[in-house]
């Protein structure tokens, strides 16, 4: 892998990780366009870069949650409830992602599977916008057990290419009664531990020699590109969902899904 290829893949990962259009799906498309086979180790490495962007952007929220967990003050009850919901989503997501892990790499090399993932993402966002169930709750701390499981299952399924983690979890939050902006913030906070777990698993593989990265220069270039573009994409999405909703992303992913099926039929 060249440095140029790594930068392109890093930007694709950084932008699409947070926009509700599926980073894995776009990376799979990028690999096809560049004439390369998917490199899941490098993809998890790029996820670590976007994790860094999330930690930087939501540092104040994370500091408040960490302080609440460490204290027993009544005024911190809200942040403790939020931490419990995030933990519940993470457990469900990890179980689902582990269960479907044998399907991920074959799906990343299959245009019909990628197209199906894009269609699922589109359908979820369309359903969320049509439901109009936003209740004005502050954030995910108000979600019940069923909603937590729903968010967790969809976040786990986002391991499949074409299924957007942010798109599916924002949709689940909206279907559970959160406003778009609250659902987006909760989606990002829930993404931090599951991405951290994936990065830790890959770090173990690298340390034991079970997996390898493409090289120091390409890896460094891709990491920086993903981290910087990811930070900018978070700010962009929070503004976009507040002003315009998910309609444009639903239409975009539907078009991508159709495009994948057309390309598959012609190949």
Account of the 3D structure:
The chain has 267 residues and is mostly helical. It has one domain (3-266). Helices cover 79% and strands 0% of the residues. The protein has helices at 3-18, 23-34, 40-57, 59-70, 77-108, 111-131, 145-157, 165-175, 180-208, 216-243, 247-266. Helix 4 (59-70) crosses helix 5 and helix 8 (165-175) packs antiparallel against helix 9. The longest helix has 32 residues, at 77-108. The radius of gyration is 18 Å and the shape is globular.
Largest sheet: none
Q: State the distance separating the first and last CA atoms.
A: 25 Å
Strand content: under 5%
How many strands in all?
0
- Radius of gyration, CA atoms, in whole angstroms: 18 Å
Number of domains: 1
Low-pLDDT ranges: none
What would the average pLDDT be, to the nearest integer?
A: 84
Shape: globular
State the helical fraction: over 70%
How many helices? Answer: 11
Note the run of SSEs as H and E: HHHHHHHHHHH
Structural class: mainly alpha
């Amino acid at each position: 892998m060249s440095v140029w290829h790594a930068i392109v893949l890093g930007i694709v990962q950084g932008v699409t990780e947070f926009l509700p259009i599926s980073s894995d799906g776009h990376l799979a498309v990028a690999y096809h366009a560049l004439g390369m086979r998917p490199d899941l180790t490098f993809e998890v490495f790029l996820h670590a870069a976007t994790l860094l962007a999330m930690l930087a952007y939501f540092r104040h929220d994370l500091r408040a949650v960490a302080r609440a967990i460490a204290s027993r003050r009544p005024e911190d009850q809200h942040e403790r409830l939020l931490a419990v919901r995030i933990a519940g989503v993470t457990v469900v997501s990890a179980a689902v992602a582990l269960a479907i892990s044998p399907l991920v790499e074959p799906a990343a090399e299959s245009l019909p599977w990628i197209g199906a993932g894009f269609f699922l993402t589109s359908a979820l966002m369309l359903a969320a916008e049509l439901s109009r169930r936003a209740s004005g709750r502050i954030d995910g701390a108000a979600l019940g057990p069923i909603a937590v499981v729903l968010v967790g299952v969809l976040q786990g399924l986002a391991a499949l290419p074409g299924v957007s983690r942010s798109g599916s979890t924002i949709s689940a939050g909206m279907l559970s009664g959160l406003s778009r902006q609250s659902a987006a913030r909760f989606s990002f906070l829930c993404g931090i531990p599951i991405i951290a777990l994936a990065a830790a698993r890959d770090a173990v593989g690298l340390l034991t020699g079970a997996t390898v990265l493409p090289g120091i220069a390409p890896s460094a270039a891709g990491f920086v590109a993903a981290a910087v573009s990811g930070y900018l994409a978070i700010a962009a999405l929070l503004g976009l969902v507040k002003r315009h909703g998910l309609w444009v992303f639903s239409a975009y992913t539907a078009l991508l899904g159709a495009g994948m099926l057309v390309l598959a039929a012609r190949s």
